[in-house]
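Supplementary material to the annual report.
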Amino acid sequence: MDLITGILNYIVFFSITAGIYAILALGLNIQWGYTGLFNIGIAGFFAIGAYTSALIAGPPPGMIDWRIIGGYELPFILGILGGAVAAGIAAVVISLPTLRLKEDYLAISTVGIAEAIRLIAKQESWLTNGVWGINNIPAPMYEPINGGIKGFLNAHPNLPQWLERLIGNGYNWFFLLLVILFLTVSYFAIERIIRSPWGRALAAIREDETVALVSGKNVFGFKMQSMVLGAMLMGAGGSFYAHFAMSIGPNDFKPLLGTFIVWVMLIAGGSGNNKGAILGAFTIWGIWAGSDFLVNLLPISDARTAALRVIVIGLLLEVILLTRPKGLLGEEKGISKLIEK
Amino acid sequence: MKRSLFTSISLLLVGLFIFATTLSSVDSTCHGAEKIEIGSLMALTGGLAPYGPPIKDGSALAIKHINEAGGVLGKELELVIKDTQSERGPARDAASKLVNLTGVPAIIGALSSGSTIGVSTVTSSKDVVLISPSATSALVRNVQDNDYTFRTVLGDRFQSFVLARLAGNLGYKNINIIYVNNPYGKGLATFFKDYFEEKGGKVNAMVPYKVGLPSYGGEASKLVNPTPDAILTIGYPTGGNKLLQKIIELGYEGSYLFTDGMKGEGVQPGPACPTEGKPSEQYIEGSFGTAPSVPGAAESFEKDYNAAYGASAVPFKAQAYDATVVIALAMQYAGEASGSAIKDNLRTVANAPGVEVGYGELEKALKLAKEGKDINWQGVSGPIEFDKRGDVQAGTISVWGVQDCEVKSVWFIPTSRILELMKE
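Predicted assembly:
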């Protein structure tokens, strides 16, 4: 029983991380999957969301914290809202000059901007506390929930260990619930709008920009809206990340674990398919985390298994992309599921 | 057809994941009856990869010695090692695996200050003790951890102070600093500047650098023009080496100062002598640096370490050894291998008062702990006295130099003396 509790507790932790990535993947799906915007600056919006939320809902500057603003200790919900809005505003500012660029150039400029945002976070200590990052960010409802759990466990000291560990993990269950709730609402909202005339206009832009323009659609406006909506989701994802990790720093938003892994998730899951984005996030993070167990089965030294693990991750990603070039689920039809393609 | 293929693949993946998870946990619980597992979170890949293995071996040596002395609570100890990939996200994931799947009561790690803080939120909420052997940033001190996070390494400011006074005594007036732009590097650099300028020195340039760039031409040129009396390099051999080479290419022939991060056999050019040529052709010959370390006990520790794992100049091995020992002693003293018991008794077995025991006396120490006597562990890395925030406050900063192509410790300055000097 102890073992099952342990696995369950780890799966909860794993799912929170994967769920946060799924939020990012959904955001990217709006931009790339439905509109064809080649945004490789996810980490930038992710960081803006995380930092904004940490400034709104996080602790005030204290020792070894040289920020001069932020730390209003407002509720988590305002943190998410602020994170999403800030990322949305950033998207408008970034989109104005870059959205007129064609695919590859958009990609180059967004990846540059994301790095610039990370470096600003690293240097501007008055706002972000520089390399030290913002720490002791409160998790939502942590005190009441964890206090209740601790009180319950103290009142019932004779519980079997597995049950004690299961209940002791209560807070993570709560956080997972929050992530799932957010994910579900976003999923249905996106599904709905993507089937609206607005969503069809996005698809038209993705398939052929000129045709959309000739049909009288404001291509730039639609692209901007798609970019902003996706960025807002990414910002919200950043907010969840900040409050789950309880500590953020500029190095959390490096391109590999902030941008490219999200792309792999979306491509592997099925670009243009919201279910695919979520499935991809869980699968790819599963490979990332699970590869650890695979290489541990080998009878070689730890330093070597660690290096081998990185190779295994790459290899498994290749296998998915080679065997399922359109992703695990492939693109979902937007018009009618009854028409065979 | 398509759907079934997809279903089978995803089922396969999920199945593989769960199977592997189970297998690894079953593997560990099978030994559970006769072994107590301790976690070790080390950077085995990524930017800090040169540090992970030797520091991990420091813990492994302690485990070996403890088991030779009869183990803890009648059981053998075992180290379960996980890789942090030198990144915070994977470090947190690895910590969660150790806490939930392996079910360890204590973890030694993580290496960097950033990772240690990230991990501490995972461990402290699950009543698991985390002891970092190498997180030197002052930041770690202020983390809300319910007293579950400790460290066996001295904080930044002691090292910076010694380095600043050393620079003054060597007669340096103008110093340029290049530092790795992370909590470790920026902390040491900031403290150094304060202490050095307090005594009339001048820091002309403070240049941050980023790990993993292909070239450091821009950074290096800022350091050599105008030529300073010495260049203080705060960083790691990955990246740090490239910097040194670039500085030398630009024609700089002056002195260097280093911190613990650049103490190691991985530092190029030097400290190992070339097969041809004289030591004097080694550019860093005659340079000095500092590191938290200790005399005396450390020598026999180094000897045993070298015999078991081969020589390594990477610092923090002794800190990892001590971290492992105090965890074991606390478990033995409490009579229980749980995180909260370790937390409650760490100070009893490490701090004064108590019977002083040191390196090579593990059998005696474990016996005393079993009898419920207070112990005052005199570690290899220092006397190990945890204060109320879980930091060690007493220890020694060593000054090391590169002489005849070898890294040698020259002076040892105890923190008590440093504190006196700071007050002056």
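Chain B touches chain A through 61 residues (CB under 8 Å).
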